[in-house]
Amino acid sequence: MHEIKLSERLAAVASLVGKGTVADIGTDHAQLPIWLVQNGHPRALASDINEGPCQRARVNIYEWGLHGKIKVKCCAGLDGIEDFSPDNIVIAGMGGEMITSILEASGYPKDSHCRLVLAPQSMQDVLRRYLCENGFSILDETVVFDGGKYYQILSAQYTGNVTLLADFEYKLGRLNLERAKNAPGDVDIEWLKLQKKAAERRVIGRAEAYDDTPEQARDRELVSEINKILGEV
């Protein structure tokens, strides 16, 4: 049987997963854990808070003949994650605030020093700020274009080291910006152009009375930093 095919987004997520066992939190059809086990990971956990996705995962896992290596668990966030003790935890398809709340509610990511692979759909700055201020080091970052949308994906691990970033780095990712500056791909450049346009629209759209607000300052700084990378004035 051929291996399962992943979307561009999930393939990018998979590329940041380290060696060892994996827990996929908020799994959908268990596509990611199936692919990871097919490609050498010894065991995986497919977890979701709703029974519907869990049932779809069970069917998929059985059809691929991996019910002996992939466990399905219906639970909230990282509840009971210690029982599986994964080397990697993947949380994708949720907003940055939701991912942050899941991480805050469990001591396992800090205690185990497991690798986190996170793909926030929104509020990337909220998630990065939480990670940096709470001792998680960001190991890698990437941007992928899939289904007409750009996705930021990052990996992190608890080291105890607190890192302070600029506001635009929380939003876009320091490693993403370094790659875009030194070895950019087409996706990086187009993504930055889109981020710049969005920030410019926000600046123009705010009333003159709000011209000196922190939000205006942050967006102007973001535009300025992107211009430096793109070589624009």
Task: State the end-to-end CA separation.
Answer: 54 Å
**Number of helices in the DSSP assignment:** 10
Radius of gyration based on Cα positions: 19 Å
Order of SSEs? HEHEHEEHHEHEEHHHH
Overall tally of structural domains? 2
> What do the pLDDT scores average to?
96
Query: Which percent range describes the beta-strand content?
Result: 15-25%
At the fold tier of CATH, the topology name of the largest domain is: Rossmann fold
Shape: elongated
CATH architecture of the largest domain: 3-Layer(aba) Sandwich
**Residue ranges: pLDDT <50 for 5 or more in a row?**
none
- Could you describe the largest sheet, including whether it forms a barrel? 7 strands, mixed
- Helix content range: 40-55%
Assign the CATH superfamily of the largest domain.
Vaccinia Virus protein VP39
Number of strands: 7
Q: Record the strand order, biggest sheet.
A: 3-2-1-4-5-7-6
CATH class of the largest domain: Alpha Beta
- Summing up helix and strand content along with how strands pair, one would put the structural category as alpha/beta
What does this protein structure show overall?
- The chain is an alpha/beta fold and 233 residues long.
- It folds into 2 domains: 8-164, Vaccinia Virus protein VP39 (Rossmann fold); 182-230.
- The chain contains 10 helices and 7 strands.
- It has helices at 8-15, 31-38, 51-63, 96-104, 108-112, 124-133, 167-172, 174-182, 186-205, 214-230, and strands spanning 22-25, 44-48, 70-74, 88-94, 115-120, 136-146, 149-158.
- The chain has a 7-stranded mixed sheet with strand order 3-2-1-4-5-7-6, with helices on both faces.
- Helix 4 runs parallel beside helix 6 (124-133).
- It is elongated.
- The protein starts with 7 loop residues before the first helix and ends with a helix.
- The model has no long low-confidence stretch (mean pLDDT 96).
